[in-house]
Amino acid sequence: MTRIAAAAILAASLVLAVAADAQQAPPARVAAPVIKIEKGEACVAPADEMRRNHMKMLLHQRDRTMRQGLREPQHSLKGCVECHASRDTGSVLGKEGFCSSCHEYTAVKIDCFQCHTPLRQAPAAARRP
Ligand code: HEC
Ligand code: HEC
Ligand code: HEC
User: Fold this and answer.
1) What is the pLDDT along the chain (129 residues), one digit of tens a residue?
2) 114 lines ligand 1 (CB under 6 A)
3) For a pocket test of ligand 3, which of 99, 100, 105 has the largest count of ligand atoms closer than 8 A to its C-beta?
4) Residue 13 to residue 40: CA distance in whole angstroms
5) N or C: lower Cβ tally within 10 Å for the chain?
């Protein structure tokens, strides 16, 4: 068998294994995270990829911006906040916050919002005193 064919078979059986797993998953015991999509038609990448890779995107983006002076607004943290902040609180943090509720569920801690704002920026007109 060629290596490519073997790889294809392996990939196919992995997909099946994952599908079978999902079907047999026991009911969740912990409250599921709140994933409310507040804005936008699509994310910067497919949801599935975002679930797995958003941390790499953001950390990578930070390295590139800080060290090489590059700025690709597509994966900016500000962009995430603009789309994912709650309509009620204007924030991605808090009990039902998009970032925080999933991180709480998965026991992830991030320090990003000690420096970056978790709040969606109001339109310029609304911000004037
Ligand atoms: C000690 C303060 C501090 C912390 C903590 C911090 N940042 Fe930043 N970050 C900055 C500063 C300063 C800049 C450069 C100025 C700017 O772009 O606003 C920056 C820039 C960025 C950028 C590029 C600009 C943008 O908006 O996309 C990203 C992405 C980013 N940070 C992500 C993160 C992530 C993810 C975390 C948490 C893992 C994090 N930062 C934690 C201070 C911080
Ligand atoms: C233009 C608006 C927009 C931007 C910018 C955006 N998102 Fe999204 N995001 C969405 C939408 C809409 C979905 C739902 C997509 C779907 O279900 O197919 C989504 C889905 C996701 C998901 C999957 C949620 C789930 O269903 O489990 C994650 C994680 C995510 N985004 C994180 C991020 C991060 C991190 C950033 C910044 C790097 C970001 N998003 C930037 C609109 C956006
Ligand atoms: C669907 C669940 C989910 C959502 C929604 C989500 N995250 Fe995450 N995030 C995770 C998981 C799980 C990890 C840990 C992954 C790992 O350790 O490999 C993580 C890790 C991270 C990390 C890396 C932490 C580190 O130091 O390694 C950053 C940065 C991050 N998320 C930012 C965000 C931001 C910003 C948002 C909101 C725009 C967000 N995440 C929304 C599940 C989520």
Assistant:
1) 445 554 444 444 444 444 444 444 455 555 677 777 777 789 999 999 999 999 988 987 777 777 777 666 668 899 999 999 999 999 999 989 999 999 999 999 999 999 999 999 866 554 444
2) yes
3) 99
4) 35
5) C
